[in-house]
Structure formats: structure tokens, C-alpha cells
Amino acid sequence: MVSALVTTLVQYLVSGLVMLSAVLAAAWLVWLSRDLPARIGGARGVGAAALALLALWLGLVVGYAPIEQVQGVVQKIFYVHIPAIIPTYLGFALTAVGGIGYLRTRAESWDQLAASGAEVGVIFCTLMLVVGPIWAKPVWGHWWVWDLRLTSTLVLWFIYVAYLLLRGLAYGSDAARTFTSVYGIVGTAAIPFVYFAVDLAQGSTMHPSNPAREGLPAEMGRTVGAGMVAFLAVFAWLVARRMEIAALEARSPAARAPGALG
Amino acid sequence: MSYLVAAYVVTGLVLAGYALRLRAARARALRDTQLRS
Amino acid sequence: MSGASVARAVFAKDLLLDFRTRDRLGHMAVFALLVVALLSIAVPASADERRAWSPALLWMVLLFASLLGLARSFQSEAEGGALALLVQAPVDRGWVFLGKAGANALALFGVALWTAVLFTVFLDVDWSEAWRPALAAGALGALGLAALGTLLAAMSVAVRFREFLLPVLLFPLVLPVLVLASSITGAALAGRPVPGLWWGVFALYDWVFVVLGYLVFDYVLED
């Protein structure tokens, strides 16, 4: 009975830790964007931490996480698929926050936050869409399955791409930044409805039901938790670097499309 | 097993690839701002 | 000059334009006719299959037709002058959005009704038992589509490749309209009860994007 309590506590601790990390990462990035050149030094520390966390996570995946009975070793893709979820959503959150910030203050730094959030977010979203099928093929026999998570991630990806496309096509003018801010806001606002719609349309789902609700074995929980925190650190570091580039480009005489890395 | 490796390798490539692109862009941006000053 | 009167003015002007010129409505109606005709010729489906697919197909047709109407919403020459005048009105420009979105919603609802008729004629869809929920779904769907569509059309007018951009921007965000409307319509046609949750979410969706459109239109019109 005590061990069950400890397991539950650890589960809550891990998810609490992950939630806290997500909020901290987002807050740090917003804080960073307010005075970029001066504050970018901290990113180096985050980068180093990210590397360390990645190493820890990989170690856990290889040595600590158990081999699942039904799926075998392939199940360990779980530890790279799930941690990519929070950065995907966090990217949208930053795009919306940046959009609101820009509309209200017209300060370019908010727009840079939004653009960087979208760019890094789409990377993780694409990752999910690539790793998902790699997992689906050996387990279910199909490369693509129209289940809840994969389908809604696909729609999210479309929204990301639409945002980046708008940014690319409308570059330069102040109106462009206004437009992308607006789209970032409505795009993010649509997400819960999209999720509901996909769920409704699917009826039943092929996806393994959320293991956390079924009671994930502690080792799995800790490993995926470590992965989540590691990916969050990577996400934060990448966004910080991307913002720094945007800030530098804003001062350079070369005419560069915001949002394009060239 | 190969699927497992593929998944992790792809992840590594994508993230590292993007990080490298950022590094190149940053170097270029630094150069451009220094040219100005 | 109050905000509501501005909204009413825009709404009335747009509707008047629609009825006088019959351009927008006519084009959307003909487009729907063409697509439904092609579908019914090309799709070799049994009556049961048709009944299963009709709701989603109907809303897809509507989605495509809406692109024609929405793009036009900000494009006419008279538009430029009239809009510039309205923008100067000392009133929250969100009201202009409400007027325009309202006119678009009504236009889309009209096209939805027309498309439903087409589906009866060409695809043997029987609305007699299902018309009440279907009508409500049509209204909610038209409103949601019009809210987001008006906002995004206003933005895409000023950007390159707008015929390509508008659907790319719009379609992922209106997926909920497509799914909710066709699910409700499908359930109604099959004689099944429609869960209250669906209505609630649909209404919430419409409310969210009408309000958002109203709030941000100020910024959008500064172009």
C-alpha cells in the first residue's frame, strides 16, 4: 500500500515537474524577448542543461526503461514521440502570446517571439508526424492511421504551415506583422475545437489509450518525464537562439524576410 | 528494432540539423551587423 | 454614430450589393450546382453510401463555394472607397467586421439552403425528417464560416497569392465547422438524436470567433 502511494506521488511529481518546466520555459522565453541582446547569455546555460538532460534521457531509455510485453523493443519509440508533444503545443502558445503582445504594444520583440515559437514548434510537430508513422508501421502494419493524436497533430501542422506561409508571403510591412499576429491568435484559439472535431469524427480510436490514465509503470513514467523535460530544454534553447537571430537581423542592413533563415 | 533506431536517428538529425542551420544563420547575422558598425 | 448603426449600415450595404448585382450569390450558386452535378455523375454509390457521405460532401461543397464569396467580400472598387469612409468613423471598427460577417453569414446560409436543395434533386437526399436540426446546423455553420472567413479574407486581400492563401489559412481552422455540421446533419438524416454537447461546442466556436474577429478587426483594417 505504501509503494502504491509512492508510485502515485512520483507520478504526480513527474507530471508536476513537467508542467512546471513548461511554464518556466515559456516564462523565460517571454522574459528573454523583452531585452534580447542583453539577456541572451543565459541561453548558453540552457543549452548545456539541454545536452545534459538529453544524455540522461537517452541513458534512461536504453538502460532503465523496461521492454514492453506486447510491442517489444519498438515500444521505446514512445519515449521520443510523447516528449515532442509539449514543445508542439508550446510553440502555438508562444505564437499566440507573441501575437497578442505585438498587437497591443507594436514592439517587434513580441513578433520575434511569435515567429520563433512557430518555427521551432513546427519542427517538433513535423517530428511527431514522422516518428508517429515509424512507430505505427511495425505495431499496426500501416504507415498512417487516422487516430485521434496523429490526425489532430496533422491539422496542427497545417495551421503551423499556414502561419509560416502567411509570414513568408506578407513579409516586410508592418501590416504583415499584424496579420501574422492575428492568425497566430485565431489559429491557436481553434486548437481545442480542432481536437474536439477530430475526436468526434473518429468515433473510436486505434491509438493506445493514454497510458497515464491506465497507470504507467513507474520506470516508464520517469523515463518519459525525463524526455519531456529534456525536449522542453531543447525547445527553449532553440527558440532563444532563433529570437537572437531575428533581433540581429532586424538591425542588419540586408533586406531579409523575417521568418526565413536564408 | 530498425524502426526504433530509425525513429531516434531521425529525431537526432532533425534537431541537430535545425540547430546547425541556426548557428549558420547566427554567424551570418553577426557578420552583417558588424559590417554595418 | 453608434457602433451598432455602423454595423447595420455595412450589413445592409453588403446585402443590397448582393441582391442588386447577384454576382456573388450567383457565382456561388452556379459553382455549387456544377460540383454537385459532377459528383452525382461521377460517384457510383448506393443509396446507403450516398446517405452516409452526403452531409460531409455538402459541407465540402459549401466550403469551396465560400471561398468564391469571401474573397469577393473585400475586393470591389466601390469597396475600397466605402471601406475607407467607414474606417474613419469614430467608432470601434470591430462593428464593421460584425456587419460584414453578418452579410457573409446570410449569403452562406442562402448557398447552404440552395446546396441542400441540389442534394435532394441530384442525390435523393430526403430532408423531411431532418430539416430542423439540419437548418440549425446550417445556420451555425454559416456563421462560423463567415466569422473566420471574413477575418481571413480581409487579411489575404492585401497579400500575394491570395486565391491560394485564403483556403490554406481558412481550411484547417474551419475543420470543426465541417465536422460538427456534417455530424449533426448526418445524425439528423439517420434519425439519431443529436447530443447537446455538439450544439454547445458549435455555439461556443461561433461565439469565440465572432468575438475574436470583432476584437482584432481594428488592427486588420489599418492596412
Protein described:
The complex is a heterotrimer of chains A (262), B (37) and C (223). Chain A has 262 residues and is mainly α. Chain A has one domain. In chain A, 79% of the residues lie in helices and 0% in strands. Chain B has one helix spanning 2-36. Chain B has one domain (1-37). In chain B, 95% of the residues lie in helices and 0% in strands. Chain C is an all-alpha fold and 223 residues long. In chain C, helix 2 packs antiparallel against helix 3 (47-72), helix 2 packs parallel to helix 5 and helix 5 packs across helix 6 (131-156). The interface between A and B is medium-sized, with 31 and 24 residues.
How would the blueprint of this fold be written?
The complex is a heterotrimer of chains A (262), B (37) and C (223).
Chain A: H1 2-34, H2 36-39, H3 41-64, H4 78-81, H5 85-105, H6 108-140, H7 148-169, H8 174-202, H9 211-214, H10 218-251
Helix pairs in contact in A: 1-6, 1-10, 3-10, 5-6, 5-8, 6-7, 6-10, 7-8
Chain B: H1 2-36
Chain C: H1 3-21, H2 23-42, H3 47-72, H4 77-88, H5 94-123, H6 131-156, H7 162-173, H8 175-189, H9 196-220
Helix pairs in contact in C: 1-5, 2-3, 2-5, 3-5, 3-6, 3-7, 3-8, 5-6, 5-9, 6-7, 6-8, 6-9, 8-9
Question: What is this structure, in a nutshell?
Answer:
The complex is a heterotrimer of chains A (262), B (37) and C (223). Chain A is built from 10 helices and no strands.
- The CA-CA distance between the termini of chain B, in Å, is 54 Å
| Structural class estimated from helices and strands of chain B | mainly alpha
> Structural class given helices, strands, pairing of chain A?
mainly alpha
Shape of chain A: globular
- Beta-strand residue percentage of chain B: under 5%
Count every helix of chain A, treating DSSP H or I runs of 4 or more residues as helices: 10
Spell the H/E element sequence of chain A.
Answer: HHHHHHHHHH
- Which shape of chain B, going by the Cα principal axes? rod-shaped
Q: What are the segments of chain A in which pLDDT stays under 50 over at least 5 consecutive residues?
A: 209-213, 255-262
Q: What are the key terms here?
A:
heterotrimer; A: 262 residues; mainly alpha; 10 helices; 79% helix; C: 223 residues; 9 helices; 0% strand
